[in-house]
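2024-03-11 09:14:02 DEBUG pipeline.ingest accepted 1 chain
2024-03-11 09:14:02 DEBUG pipeline.ingest length=65
2024-03-11 09:14:03 DEBUG pipeline.predict start
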Amino acid sequence: MKASASIQFKDKSEIGIWAEKVIELAVEAGLMNGRTDHEFAPKEHANRAESVVVIKRLLAGLSSS
């Protein structure tokens, strides 16, 4: 999968350059969303529930391929 959409979060400047493409891929693939519609919160830790959602989405995507 190739990242095509740019990150549209207002806190994009806080995302490390090394992580931008991976975050674009994860958002485009539907694995991750922002904390809000406009904020990704890259400096925050993911809580348990957020982590479980990402894992469930990943597993659902693997099983449907």
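2024-03-11 09:14:41 DEBUG pipeline.report Helices lie at 20-28, 48-64.
2024-03-11 09:14:41 DEBUG pipeline.predict end
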